[in-house]
Amino acid sequence: MPIIIKSRFEIERMRRAGQLAYQILDRMREAAVAGATTGALDELANAELTRAGAKALSKNYPTYRPGEGFPGYTCISVNEEVVHGIPGSRVLKDGDVVTLDLALSLDGYCADTATTVGIGAISPALRKLLDVTKETLDLALANMRPGRRWSDIARLMQHYVEKHGYNVVREFVGHGIGRGMHEEPKVPNFVTAEQLSGDFTLRRGMTLAVEPMVVMGRRDVDLYKDGWTVFTVDRMPAAHFEHTVAMTDTGVDILTDGRAPVAVATGT
Fold first, then answer.
1. What is the pTM of this model?
2. Is 260 within a domain?
3. What residue numbers bound the domain in which 180 lies?
């Protein structure tokens, strides 16, 4: 499938979705305290989505087992859980790290964003993991500009993670986004021969979800019996940060940083 280039009008519609995603994720972050359940955070997000007339893109997302779509409105992953954690009765406790991952559609346009937060006082080692993962996302966004190959950005990300003694998860990558949550191209956080075969050049109007997933130990992951939750095989903690961005003439425009959309005419 081709990469879909977006107009200014479409990008501002995506920013509107991104502003809502930022606001909901901020509410979830504030509510992520010791004693809260992951299910309560998910219901908070659902209430906000319903109030805004938005759709949770995770809810009922299809799996390989017919009739068993994802049960949550958001993905909430704790400690060694990397991604796609199912919200439920799990109680957060001091020292945990929890990834809040929200994808939504508002009036037909999508936004996808994630953050990992500490519960109460977390260890210095966990704080460093979160900081390095966030810095990896920031590094990618600071180096993205038209004409650069994505592999150049992915190589920077992988090197930054590995020089700090961590690893990048390779089973999951970022993606194009727009009218659909998952569009072309695939946006990896690492470089391999396989990924190089799908390399692409950044262009104005591309809209991408950039999302490094970093683990403290080995990069090997597995799947819980629930069919969704991905965890590290060595049970070491993970972190995940994500923004939806649009390419401009000079770099990136972050669409999930909370800024309000700008009024532009249809077709521009």
1. 0.96
2. no
3. 8-254
**In this predicted structure, what is the pLDDT of residue 64?**
60
| 83-121 confidence digits (pLDDT tens) | 999 999 999 999 999 999 999 999 999 999 999 999 999
What letter would DSSP give residue 85? P
Tell me, yes or no, whether 268 lies in a domain. Answer: no
pLDDT digits over 63-76, tens only? 766 668 999 999 99
Q: What is the CATH number of the domain that holds 201?
A: 3.90.230.10
Asked, as a colleague might, if the bond just before 185 is cis with ω within 30 of 0, I would say yes
Give the burial string for 111-137 (b: 16+ CB within 10 Å, else e): bbbbbbbbbeebeeebeebbebbbbbb
Whether 31 maps to a domain, the answer reads yes
Q: What is the DSSP-derived secondary structure letter of residue 201?
A: B
**SS3 state at 55:** strand
Reference 139, options 251, 250, 249; nearest CA is 251
